[in-house]
């Protein structure tokens, strides 16, 4: 991907991850984001078309497919009980169809906007994803939501990148993570407080970014930025885990 797409004042190409996060809880198995369509890992043009793929440089290996990642950890796809989408863009919702029996959560206003987006974001909401969402058990989260009422997993309203963008606070016994979805794209964006070039609402996006920075301090949390390659390199990912 061209780095100037992610952050003003940069140039050249950068390889970014599109991760999903699997969280074990005594009341269910929770998935935050479902990434790209699994088939796009090895056949991206069939899924996303010849125009979009060269622009984004989508690629990967069979073992990086979300379905293969989950089964490699010893779970069935049907074991996932709760799916939280940070927002509706195709690189965060491509695997929603894998979890037809789960409860699905979106931020306030996201699904309405996904059906009638502003022109600048129209290419990242795809009809095939919207068709899948209509068949799912979906819930719109208004404000913040403590998912199980015990403070372990809290959906945080962080709109701006899209109207219903949400982040996730995950309290583990060893540490607390703030998973930012696309409320923040790169570490430099967070520290310099730059907005993403195609945010739906720049002012609101910056407020959400500052909210996450304040929560990082007040909660003593570690911020994990989904698309940041430095975060991908630093933090443990499957089959490793945090507890």
Structure write-up:
- The structure is a single chain.
- The chain is α/β, with parallel strands linked by helices.
- It has helices at residues 44-56, 66-72, 90-93, 110-115, 127-133, 187-192, 202-219, 229-234; strands spanning 21-25, 28-32, 80-84, 103-107, 137-141, 145-146, 153-157, 166-171, 176-179, 222-224.
- The chain has a 5-stranded mixed sheet with strand order 1-2-3-4-5, with no helix packed on it. The protein has a 5-stranded mixed sheet with strand order 6-7-8-9-10, with helices on one face.
- The chain starts with 20 loop residues before the first strand and ends in a 9-residue tail after the last helix.
Q: Characteristics of this structure?
A:
243 residues; 10 strands; 8 helices; five-stranded mixed beta sheet; alpha/beta
Strand order of the biggest β-sheet: 1-2-3-4-5
Strand pairing plus helix content: what structural class?
alpha/beta
Order of helices and strands: EEHHEHEHHEEEEEHHEH
User: Helix segment count?
Assistant: 8
pLDDT averaged residue by residue: 92
**Spatial shape:** globular
Q: How much helical structure, as a percent, in the residues?
A: 25-40%
The beta-strand count equals 10
List the helices and strands and how they pair.
Layout: E1 21-25, E2 28-32, H1 44-56, H2 66-72, E3 80-84, H3 90-93, E4 103-107, H4 110-115, H5 127-133, E5 137-141, E6 145-146, E7 153-157, E8 166-171, E9 176-179, H6 187-192, H7 202-219, E10 222-224, H8 229-234
Parallel strand pairs: 2-3, 3-4, 4-5, 9-10
Antiparallel strand pairs: 1-2, 6-7, 7-8, 8-9
């Amino acid at each position: 991907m061209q780095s100037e797409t992610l952050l003003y004042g940069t140039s050249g190409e950068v390889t970014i991850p599109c991760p999903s996060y699997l969280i074990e809880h005594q009341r269910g198995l929770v998935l935050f984001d479902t990434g790209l369509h699994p088939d796009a890992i090895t056949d991206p043009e069939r899924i996303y078309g010849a125009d979009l793929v060269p622009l984004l440089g989508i690629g990967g290996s069979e073992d990086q497919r979300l379905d293969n990642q989950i089964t490699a950890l010893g779970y069935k796809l049907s074991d996932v009980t709760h799916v939280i989408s940070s927002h509706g863009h195709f690189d965060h919702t491509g695997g929603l169809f894998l979890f037809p029996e789960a409860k699905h959560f979106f931020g306030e206003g996201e699904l309405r906007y996904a059906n009638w987006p502003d022109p600048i974001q129209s290419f990242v909401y795809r009809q095939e994803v919207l068709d899948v969402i209509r068949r799912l058990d979906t819930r719109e989260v208004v404000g913040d939501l403590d998912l199980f009422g015990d403070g372990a997993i809290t959906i945080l309203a962080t709109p701006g990148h899209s109207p219903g963008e949400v982040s996730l606070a995950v309290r583990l016994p060893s540490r607390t993570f703030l998973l930012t979805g696309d409320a923040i794209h790169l570490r430099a964006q967070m520290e310099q407080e730059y907005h993403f070039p195609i945010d739906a609402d720049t002012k609101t996006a910056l407020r959400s970014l500052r909210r996450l920075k304040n929560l990082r301090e007040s909660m003593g949390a570690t911020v994990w930025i989904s698309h940041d390659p430095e975060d991908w390199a630093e933090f443990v990912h499957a089959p490793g885990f945090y507890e």
